[in-house]
Design a protein that fits this description.
- Strand 2 and strand 3 form a beta hairpin.
- The chain has two domains: 91 residues; 178 residues, Glutaredoxin (3-Layer(aba) Sandwich).
- The chain has eleven helices and nine strands.
- 43% of the residues lie in helices and 16% in strands.
- The N and C termini lie close together (8 Å).
- The protein is an alpha+beta fold.
Length: 296
């Protein structure tokens, strides 16, 4: 993965901007979000850069400023046409885009300690896991069962689990978005399945994503109940009671709180050994999984 550490003041001065103008440009009230002209220009650039067809409709979500600076996180995703998703940081004038923005202020040792703590928090407790605990690579995903991009990423991760074998452990965390009306009850149902067995969770996980286009607020309960009657390693009666009484609501809140603390703002959000990563294609994720441990 390409990395770019942005030395803001140096870049501004090299561009011929005076120190006074630079200070004015970087005041918080000057950190304006992209307007429609900015979005249109950036979408045109990405369409050419990633060779998307002219008719592909691209949406832009503003993730807000990063690290208290005027750099903004923007999420680009196709709304029609071939699947495409990219999380990029934009410079204040929206001229430059980069996959990663590194904050050069923290002590590297402190940053490493925070990453170690984050990695531990992602596997702490009774979390859904695929793979052996001895795997050198742990890929944690914060996901939403109603999110189309999460469904695509789930397919990729299932394939990676098959191809990478004992090298990879996949950990799932619930992060239902408020814009998705049945994502929260689906997460609670999956957590109810997890209460009984890891096998049951992953069975429901795959079922929900496989039938995503068929599900709605009105029919989710019926489909989940039908799945539960023949699910592996599951007592249907206990499962139905857990779902009916929302016994796992607190568990979902804990995952959402953890994700928020780690900077998750959308789904899917991926972490490799505690480090947030940007990538959703099989090739990108396989490269992240296969890179030597400790190499960033």
């Amino acid at each position: 993965m390409n990395r770019l550490t942005v030395a803001t003041c140096a870049a501004l001065l090299m561009g011929g901007i005076t120190a006074g103008a630079a200070f004015h440009r970087w005041m918080p009230d000057r950190c304006a979000p992209p307007d429609e002209a900015d979005k249109s220009r950036l979408k045109s650039f990405l369409r050419i850069k990633y060779k998307l067809p002219p008719g592909a409709e691209i949406g832009v979500a503003d993730g807000g400023v990063a690290f208290g600076s005027c750099f903004r996180k923007l999420v680009f995703a196709t709304l029609s046409g071939p699947p495409f998703r990219a999380e990029l940081f934009a410079s204040p004038d929206f001229r430059f885009l980069t996959k990663e923005l590194l904050d050069a202020r923290p002590d590297p040792k402190e940053a490493a300690e925070r990453q170690r703590e984050a990695a531990q928090s992602l596997v702490r407790g009774n979390v859904p896991v695929r793979g052996t605990g001895k795997a050198p690579v742990t890929l944690a995903v914060f996901s939403d069962f109603q999110c189309p991009f999460c469904a695509r990423t789930a397919k990729v991760l299932n394939g990676l689990g098959d191809s990478e074998g004992d090298r990879l452990r996949v950990v799932y965390h619930y992060f239902p978005l408020s814009i998705h009306p049945w994502a929260r009850p689906a997460a609670e149902a999956a957590a109810c399945a997890q209460r009984q067995s890891n096998t049951a969770f992953w069975s429901l996980h795959d079922f929900l994503f496989a039938h995503q286009n068929e599900l709605s607020v009105d029919n989710l309960g019926q489909h989940v109940a039908q799945w539960g009657r023949t699910a592996p390693d599951l007592d249907p009666g206990q499962f139905e009671r857990c779902v009916r009484e929302s016994l796992t609501s607190g568990q979902i809140e804990q995952d959402v709180a953890l994700g928020t603390e780690l900077g998750v703002r959308g789904t899917p959000a991926l972490f490799v050994n505690g480090e947030p990563v940007d990538g959703s294609s099989a090739d990108e994720l396989r490269a992240l999984v296969r890179r030597p441990v400790g190499v960033r």
